[in-house]
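Quick start: read one record
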Amino acid sequence: MKNIFTFVFILLAFQVVVHSQNYKLRFDALDLQHYNLAIEVNDSTNNIQATMNISLKFKQLVTDFQLDLVQKDSTGKGMHIESVFQNNDSVAFTHADNKITIQPNFVNTDSLFNFEIKYNGVPKDGLIIGENLHGDRTFFADNWPNRAHNWFPCVDHPSDKATVEYTVKAPNHYQVIANGYLFEETNLSNDLKLYHYKNAEPLPTKVMVIGVARFAVQHLGETHNIPVSTWVYPQTKEQGFYDFANAKNILNFFIEKFGEYPYQKLANVQSKTQFGGMENAGAIFYFEKIVTGERNHEDTIVHEIVHQWFGNSASESDWPHLWLSEGFATYFTDLYIEETEGEAAFNKRLKAERETVLDFYKIKQTPVIDTENTNLMSLLNANSYEKGAWVLHMLRKKLGDETFWKGIKTYYEKFKLNNASTNDFKKVMAEVSGENLDAFFSQWLQKAGHPILKTSWLYNNNMLRLIISQTQKTSFQFPLDVELVYTDGTSEIKTIEVSDIAIPFEIATNGEVKEIKFDPNTWLLFELVD
């Protein structure tokens, strides 16, 4: 996901609280296997008619279990449940605190059970119904982080993945895009059309979506047998087709880097998402104004395509590990820019991202893995994005390119279509490299801050005496590249190991030093102070 709104706006606009312990208890009891959603939308009201069939297994014997679904409130928005059936038999249920508590008629730990939930209502959120920038009526799902349960019953947490299919009935002047492949398209009448999509790979609910709108669609062909398409509003289709035309090349680049693409298609969709881009699996939704005809948001497209591997397929096990999604997408976007625009553009982005991290730290001193933050929207910050990217960059420097890429591919292969924590990632990288990475991961991800350095130096008779003091609260250990610039115009780079003890470094030189440049090749997340 790439966010175009300010951090302050998000904090004010959304206050979403996660109850981690509640989800962990559910994971101990349930294993959601498949969602089968039949939904009908119309032009006369914002009310949806829907039936959800959920297939699940019980890990233990229970008398009841819970699914997330926002209930109707005093404004008239929310969902009203008409009935719940288990294998065609009615079952007792209650709907309170935005959860359905279902009392199954029969439970064992050997069978697959199906529950049918019939409901209707006006979505409070999650499925955004309204007019697009051209005044056309549209319906776009926008689930991140846990807003899916505003419009369908589910376990709304990234670590409970399931396959999904949708049967969407809509007035026939619309087209429908969704995860997966189009299994059926049928004209039901002069006014109504049916679209049936199936997604064979397990997904987290945050990236399960449908989009219903008037679209102009362009099929760009295939790469590695993956069809790539563009879905934009017809009023500016030529500009939109141009803006997304490079998607096949971007996809090909990352297939070569990461391995097999995890889904059956890649569709880039102009939409009503509140984010700059939302990485919905195989059907990425972008903010409406991305279409300009100038290709000035290509880094957003790259970012969301990276998410298909990291965030969608290999997903974070819980929200504090969001950097495994956003940090990865940010850094691999930087590497794509290096490939296509050169090293100077790459270093420019890194420096800008470093400044973003330093600025954020002045406002909020929290670690990347922030286990105390229960406001999920506020996790969309510089720690998850830019600092996460910098951690990968420094890890690459520490391990070397060959080992780093071997580790990234190994990590993805191990956790594709599954979930991982930061510790899982660390273990893979340690096994591949043969190095103990505990200190590295601890200081950069579990502690707040970064090295804030105060330096002084003295040159005398081909010997440089350099003092580096860490001025932040928590000390770091790291290699620091120092470029010695000589009076004759030559220079050389020395690497010193900085520890928590401020000791002077004595460095032999090849001439008289006139200037020192710290981290000349942009490999360290740090700050210099006078």
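The radius of gyration is 26 Å.
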